[in-house]
Model the fold of this input.
Amino acid sequence: MILRGITMQHADIAIINGTILTMDTQNSTFENGFVCIRGDTISHIGANNEIPFQAKQIIDAKGGLILPGLINGHTHAAMSLFRGLADDLPLMEWLNNYIFPVERRIDADFVYTGTMLACAEMIMCGTTTFCDMYLFEEEVARAAREAGMRCLVGEVLYDFPSPNYGPIEKGLEYTESLIRKWEDDPLVSIAVEPHSLFTCSPDLLTAANELSLNYKVPLIIHVAETLNEIAEVREKYGKRPFEHLDSLGILGPHLIADHCVHLDESEIKRMADHGVKAINNPESNMKLASGISPVSKLLAQGVTVGLGTDGCASNNNLDLFTEMDMAAKLHKIATMDPTVLDAVTVMKMATIKGAKALELEDITGSLEPGKKADIIIVDTNKPHLTPMYNPYSHLVYAARGSDVIHSVINGQLVMENRKLLTLNLDDIIAQARAKAVQVKAWVSG
Ligand SMILES: [Zn+2]
Done:
């Protein structure tokens, strides 16, 4: 890696003076390392700041940790505007009395405002890529683009009419137009996203699957989140959720299944055999008392599992550092085994495995020359991160999103010394507060 004898290397950005955790297949690390970025791409990585380079901009990590930006594998970004609106309620009461009444009234501007707020929060806690399912996804893509964030987004599809596209036929058309419009975009990718097995008929699931296969884009569904869902699918189709999907011919490596809380052994095997990917959302599953996903069993069977926050209404933040901490601890207590989901495994779920789950592993999820430059720097000059024997341990068990000090996405510096460079935080907060006044009126009206 040390290119002695080669004349001065040129870089647009050089990040120096930190411990680099690449999260590559060997889990390579570099002490006193440097990362050079040319354009949108990582050009060199090495140790001891030895490479002769000339960079337009140098970012001094000041002994901190340099790592791939985190990947939020499942969220509903605009639900940031419902943060703390209603907590501590049974799922159906929460949905019927709070979430559904307000979601019926939201519009494009609401989703744009909520997503801008979510992007600000995500960048400020080290997330560089997110996967979204919601309404008015064109607005989500637009907001992410303005924020400079990488994303995989898709319009939520279900059997009933949507405030965005109306009847479901239009939903499939809308999704197709999103796929065409954002094809070749450097940051935004589109997925086909039927909501769940209990809100989507077999016909809709089949049509969504065909659209996904035709355009070679992922198919994303909530699956096996609650026991209610298991009972409903059993009653309607006489099958377990993954059996039902299998009978429709939908299982495959293009399928990303969110939650996967209630699975039996045969379903785990089906997922592994077909290369289905899973996203674990431990905090949301705890808050809604949905249950605990058998993540250690999925991993043991070789299923790719990423990590997500789910929406802010059931979390109530988008901080993947706290999500990593919760994931590691929840699965230990669930199995009564402190060795499951060790810190490195959990870090992978939030980085390279998350990228793999979203089919973005050629682009992001690890620091390797040739990959896009999605990089965060964690400031470790803090009491709760001192001393440091093992950086993975700190990132999973001690760090918080607010410890991220700089962030680069696709070669663009989007946060420097905790100041957002692509977004006006004061404006975003003011607009979000104005939307909350509306939400309050909708709930009380
Ligand atoms: Zn969700």
Observations:
- The pocket of zinc ion is lined by residues 74, 76, 222, 258, 310-311 (CB under 6 Å).
